[in-house]
Amino acid sequence: MLRISASPPHGIAQEIEIRYSTDKKINDDEIARRCVNIITWDTTLPEGKITVKVERGWVTLSGEVPWHFQRVAAESGVRKISGVTGITNLITIKARVQPGDVKQKIQDALKRSAEVEANAIRITVTDSGVRLEGKVNDWREREIVEKAAWSVAGVMAVDDRLTV
């Protein structure tokens, strides 16, 4: 097992493995190094907030970020690395806003979208996330509403109960 933090880079190897130059398998230390590089190079990700742990090719990401898209971007970036057999994404989203602010920002985003009838959607904000209820015209409209909810900083979960 190897654990590396993006800033400053450091690691702990608990299992030392002997490798031969003819081995085609990519080892955990190399996978971890590549993961840290991908995360460090991604300017949308906060520096030093994501930790990478690799064990037998399985990558575990942990840490805290302010936006959902950053959580997704970190996972998406390391998924492309050769030798990765799977990913566990334990990155959490740090809430920085008040529930009233979240609701207002989602409503504003829906009003800006000409494709969505914003008045037909009920938005409930709790400490655990956002619940969307109401009726939309089609699946694309449903996706637009859900993306609007995820686009607000501090949203940790979206419970999509919209009907088509």
Order of strands, main sheet, comes to 2-1-3-4-5
The CATH level-2 architecture of the largest domain is identified as: 2-Layer Sandwich
Largest sheet: 5 strands, mixed
In angstroms, what separates the terminal alpha carbons?
47 Å
At a glance:
32% of the residues lie in helices and 29% in strands.
Structure description:
The protein has 164 residues and is an alpha/beta fold. The chain folds into two domains: 2-93, Histidine-containing Protein, Chain: A (2-Layer Sandwich), CATH 3.30.1340.30; 99-163, Histidine-containing Protein, Chain: A. It has four helices and eight strands. The chain has a five-stranded mixed beta sheet with strand order 2-1-3-4-5, with helices on one face. Helix 3 crosses helix 4 (139-150). The protein is elongated. The model has no long low-confidence stretch (mean pLDDT 82).
What's the topology here?
Elements: E1 2-5, E2 11-13, H1 28-41, E3 50-55, E4 58-65, H2 68-79, E5 86-93, H3 99-112, E6 121-126, E7 129-135, H4 139-150, E8 158-163
Parallel strand pairs: 4-5, 7-8
Antiparallel strand pairs: 1-2, 1-3, 3-4, 6-7
Helix pairs in contact: 3-4
Task: Give descriptors for this structure.
single chain, 164 residues, alpha/beta, Histidine-containing Protein, Chain: A, five-stranded mixed β-sheet, three-stranded mixed β-sheet, 4 helices, 8 strands, 32% helix
